[in-house]
Design brief:
This protein has about 300 residues and is α/β, with parallel strands linked by helices. The chain has helices spanning about 30-50, 65-75, 105-110, 120-130, 135, 140-145, 170-180, 205-210, 285-290; strands at about 15-20, 55-60, 85, 90-95, 95-100, 155-160, 230, 255, 260, 300. A hairpin with a 2-residue loop joins strand 4 (about 90-95) and strand 5 (about 95-100).
Length: about 300
């Protein structure tokens, strides 16, 4: 259920989540900063709704703390019926502890090919904390990672600051059983796209023509983009994703972004969203504009924690 936070008896209460943090960058002043904090808050909200016991946001730069503080503040302000406490770099929403840890050891995040590998540093820091090695050198630093509640963390979940976890609450006990048996789980990534049906049914053109042009959302009135499958929360429905293997249909064309970059090195699905079609574009022209997305059916999720 999308509205409720699971109780302290959640099957995943002994899970500690790590969010390897890095901010967005954009040209519009303030927009990237706002989206960074808001996306992080949405990601954290999806984790405490599943019932994770602790969420640790890890960063490397001095400015990262302010983004995280704003996200914590947003969650605190919108906690509603959930008990919430807030400090400068930590918080608690319901039964979920939140904390920010700034990594200062550059060797943790430096690899041969990547100068600033935040996920690597996050995993290494958590390994040192859970193994007790960090406590022998810097006990206070260990507390930043694991908290002071004395919880014996059994599971670790690594994610990104803009990746909302969506799952079925009634499947959590099964996931717990799999973890206890030694299995590892990897979420299947779904790519959200702005769709015309996401806007209010009235005034899409009137109210959004200026800030949002036709090149920034998929046209919902043009076939096949008008077909959106609604997936509902019914236990008897066994939804699953199809793995296309090596068939990357959207990357068949050699170049994206108007021929400036090879599709294999960019987000091919977003290339059409960067190029604005003519304001008076016909349906045929819009279909051609979004041709790379045609092979992929679209769906809207109406169930699960998110």
């Amino acid at each position: 259920d999308s509205g409720a936070t699971l109780s302290k008896s959640s099957p995943l209460q002994e899970t500690i989540a790590m969010i390897a943090f890095a901010p967005y960058h954009g040209r519009a002043p303030g927009r990237a900063e706002y989206l960074t904090s808001l996306s992080l808050a949405a990601t954290i909200a999806s984790l405490y709704k599943v019932g994770f016991g602790r969420v640790v946001v890890t960063g490397m730069k001095d400015d990262d703390e302010e983004y995280v503080r704003q996200a914590f503040q947003f969650l605190h302000n919108h906690a509603h019926r959930h008990t919430a406490t807030l400090n400068s770099t930590s918080a608690k929403i319901g039964h979920t502890e939140l904390a920010y840890v700034q990594m200062t050891n550059r060797s943790w995040t430096t690899t041969k090919w990547v100068k600033l590998n935040i996920p690597r540093g996050s995993v290494l820091g958590m390994q040192l904390a859970l193994s007790g090695q960090m406590a022998m050198e810097t006990p206070k630093e260990e507390e930043k990672w694991l908290g002071s509640s004395g919880t014996d963390w059994k599971y670790v979940y690594l994610t990104e600051p803009d990746t909302i976890l969506h799952t079925k609450s009634w499947l959590l006990p099964t996931i717990r059983e799999g973890l206890d048996s030694g299995m590892s789980f990897f979420p299947h990534r779904l790519q959200p796209l702005p769709h015309e049906s996401d806007f209010p049914s009235k005034g899409t053109e009137q109210h959004y023509a200026s800030p949002v042009n036709k090149g920034h959302y998929v046209p919902g009135h043009v076939h096949p983009f008008s077909n959106v499958t609604l997936l509902k929360d019914e236990e008897e429905e066994d939804y699953s994703c199809c793995d296309g293997g090596g068939a990357w249909v959207g990357r068949m064309e050699p170049f994206c972004h108007g021929g400036q970059e090879p599709c294999g090195t960019s987000m091919w699905w977003s290339s059409s969203l960067y190029l604005e079609p003519p304001k008076d574009a016909t349906d045929e022209a819009l279909l051609e504009h979004y041709q790379k997305l045609v092979p992929y059916p679209m769906m809207r999720l109406d169930y699960g924690t998110r």
